[in-house]
Specification:
The complex is a heterodimer of chains A (310) and B (338). With 310 residues, chain A is of the alpha/beta class. Helices cover 37% and strands 25% of the residues of chain A. Chain A is built from ten helices and twelve strands. In chain B, the strands form two sheets. An eight-stranded mixed sheet of chain B has the order 6-7-8-3-9-10-12-11, with helices on both faces. Chain B has 338 residues and is α/β, with parallel strands linked by helices. Chain B has two domains: 191 residues, P-loop containing nucleotide triphosphate hydrolases (Rossmann fold, 3-Layer(aba) Sandwich); 66 residues, no CATH class. Chains A and B meet through helix 5, helix 6, helix 7, helix 9 and helix 10 of A and helix 8, helix 9, helix 10 and helix 11 of B. Chain A: Keywords: ATP-binding, Nucleotide-binding, Transport. Chain A: Pfam families: ABC_tran, oligo_HPY.
């Protein structure tokens, strides 16, 4: 039993049409996703744009309405957050992609980080200030920063403010939605290192949503690959990168740019082989609607979406 | 044999901020040859896009000093009318975001056709259409006849970028500037677009300037690489040398901060400090110096220049010869190699 469990999660958005604005169809943004994260581990959710990875994260956070499925956290059912104990919301926090737009430019750092504290904990002004300063120190910013505004910080520093806000209530799970995609490589390194540090320090569990497989490989213990709202493959980082089974995963792994220019020819050839295989065997791996099949175990931890063998 | 297509000499592009001019591109000299991809790599704010815009003459109010020689003719500060003749015909640009680069209200066929007939005035309608279809074919669009009648929103990101490239190559330019052409795209599409650029380079015998922050893209596409930091080129070399034997502290730090599957890193290298803003740039001494404070200041030159340390391999400032990573990350490195 994982620390955070998602069972057969479905998030469908209605398409309205006709003169009465009736629901004519649904966009199945997330269509039957199950995942399980162990305490203190990092689970990577990977997919191309529009695959439903962010919607999955937002649904767990309670930011999207869930059509069907079940989410449990530490044994508690949190599928319907309105009915769940209010406390649960404190335990799961989110880090957003863009540190430039996820911080209110009109607020001081003190107010940004103190906002979750003000919602849940009744602290005096002095206590609050002290807590915020502690948090800033934890994320490696000077305590004097509390009176500054977001524009006075660099991208990496802003992302740290976002992290400080996320960990203010001492959560157990952090959902990080592309936390480094908007950052330069040197800043990215800083944020990734730092996320690992606080993971150890605070025993955090991460759901890391991303599309950069290099970063995912560096950060994650387990990986799920999404395509059109469904899972195509799930396994440990080693299984996904060293023995991908689904053609879609193979193609994704083949597309990672190789940092060694002497491998260029080999890489191009390899990619063409995979592309040919992808085109030839597309019908074997996807159903008539172009969607992935149900997951089937190939080992204890490794699941692949393969068709029923008759 | 490669031949010089574009030669930039001591280019300085400055912007006015409150009555003072600040150089975003400072003393940049590069050459681009035919049938060659020159990658310009650096982080945001290093001046790589400002450099590209200077070449294309897209800055409105910047002060441009130095020479930009296109086939021997200086095109820095020439009149817009003359520049318009060059743009599109001889040189073209591919932008980062294909959605904003296209007109949402025009069919794809008309958008490309507009460019085709702009430089080729006496084409008949059917000739024009034939040419557009041919271009769409060339950039690998699967159903050109159908795409001809579609609007940008009906296409995926990768297809849109192919349309943008089709527009850029419509009049077979000899110089193509691609400003982060794959940053907005998914990984599988990125590799397809990069392959396409490489094909075009050979097909049209064109020189390509590829501007990017992604070292993986550079390793896969470039022939030569120029690394920019704070407005200056700090290292320039062919792609194998740059990745195999990088010298400048900035290049080495950058390469070390990317997650690399070949190394078992628990920690990535972090460059200390932050990129200085345009107004706060140190104008004297080694610009990277403040970010490697553990290196003795005597290692830097007073006025750093590019040194040719082996044929075609230039490094700015003398600090590279005494550079090493601080103890902590050194451990990580040796751990990674073993």
């Amino acid at each position: 039993m994982g620390f955070l469990e998602v069972e057969d999660l479905k998030v469908h958005f209605p398409i309205k049409g006709g003169i009465f604005g009736r629901t004519v169809d649904y966009v199945k943004a997330v269509d039957g996703v199950s995942l399980s994260i162990e305490k203190g581990k990092t689970y990577g959710l990977v997919g191309e744009s529009g695959s439903g990875k962010t919607t999955t994260g937002r649904a767990i956070m309670g930011l999207n309405n869930i059509t069907a499925g079940k989410i449990t956290f530490d044994g508690y059912d949190i599928t319907d957050l309105k009915q769940a104990e209010l406390d649960v919301r404190k335990q799961i926090q989110m880090i957003f992609q863009d540190p430039y737009s996820s911080l209110n430019p009109k607020k001081r750092v003190l107010d940004i980080i103190a906002e979750p504290l003000r919602n849940y904990e009744k602290l005096s002004k002095i206590e609050e200030k002290k807590r915020v300063q502690e948090l800033l120190e934890l994320v490696g910013l000077s305590p004097e920063s509390i009176v500054k505004y977001p524009h006075e910080f660099s991208g990496g520093q802003r992302q740290r403010i976002g992290v400080a806000r996320a960990i203010a209530l001492k959560p157990k799970v952090i959902i990080a939605d592309e936390p480094v995609s908007a950052l330069d490589v040197s800043v990215q390194a800083q944020v990734l290192n730092f996320m690992r540090d606080i993971q150890e320090e605070l025993d955090l569990t991460y759901l890391f949503i991303g599309h950069d497989l290099g970063v995912i490989r560096h950060m994650c213990d387990h990986i799920g690959i999404m395509y059109k709202g469904r899972y195509v493959e799930q396994g440990t980082t080693e299984e996904i990168f060293n023995s991908p089974q689904h053609i879609y995963t193979k193609r994704l792994v083949a597309a990672i740019p190789d940092i060694d220019p002497s491998q260029r020819k080999k890489q191009i050839q390899f990619r063409q082989e995979v592309q040919t295989e992808y085109e030839q065997s597309y019908n074997e791996y996807f159903d008539s609607d172009g969607l992935a099949f149900k997951l089937k175990p190939v080992s204890k931890t490794h699941l692949v979406a393969l068709p029923e063998v008759e | 044999m490669a031949e010089g297509l574009l030669e930039i000499k001591n280019l300085k592009t400055s912007f006015r901020i409150k009555d003072n001019y600040y150089a975003a591109v400072d003393d940049v000299s590069i050459t681009v040859n035919k049938n060659e991809v020159l990658a310009i790599v650096g982080e945001s704010g290093c001046g790589k896009s400002a450099l590209a815009f200077s070449i294309m003459g897209l800055h409105n109010r910047a002060k441009i000093e130095g020479n930009i020689l296109y086939k021997g003719h200086d095109i820095a500060n020439i009149s817009p009318a003359k520049l318009n003749k060059l743009r599109g015909n001889d040189m073209a640009m591919i932008f980062q975001d294909p959605l904003t680069a296209l007109n949402p209200l025009m069919e794809i066929g008309d958008q490309i056709g507009e460019i085709v007939s702009l430089h080729n005035k006496n084409l008949s309608k059917s000739e024009r259409k034939a040419k557009v279809i041919k271009l769409l074919n060339k950039v690998g669009i699967p159903h050109p006849e159908r795409t001809y009648k579609q609007f940008p929103h009906e296409l995926s990101g990768g297809m849109r970028q192919r349309v943008v490239i089709a527009i850029a190559i419509a009049n077979e330019p000899e110089l193509l500037i691609a400003d982060e052409p794959t940053t907005a795209l998914d990984a599988t599409i990125q590799s397809q677009i990069l392959d396409l650029l490489n094909e075009l380079k050979e097909d049209m015998n064109a020189g390509i300037i590829l501007i990017t922050h992604d070292l993986g893209v550079v390793a896969e596409t470039a022939d030569r690489v120029a690394v920019m930091y704070a407005g200056q080129i700090v290292e320039i070399a062919d792609v194998h040398t740059l990745f195999g034997d990088p010298q400048h502290p900035y290049t080495r730090s950058l390469l070390n901060s990317v997650p690399n599957a070949a190394k078992d890193q628990t920690k990535l290298h972090v460059i200390q400090g932050i990129v200085p803003s345009l107004q706060k740039l140190p104008r004297e001494g080694c610009r990277f110096g403040p970010r490697i404070p553990w290196i003795d200041s005597s290692a830097h030159e007073d006025n750093p220049v590019l040194h040719e340390i082996s044929p075609g391999h230039f490094v700015r400032c003398t600090c590279y010869s005494q550079f090493s990573f601080p103890e902590e990350s050194k451990e990580d490195q040796s751990h990674g190699v073993s």
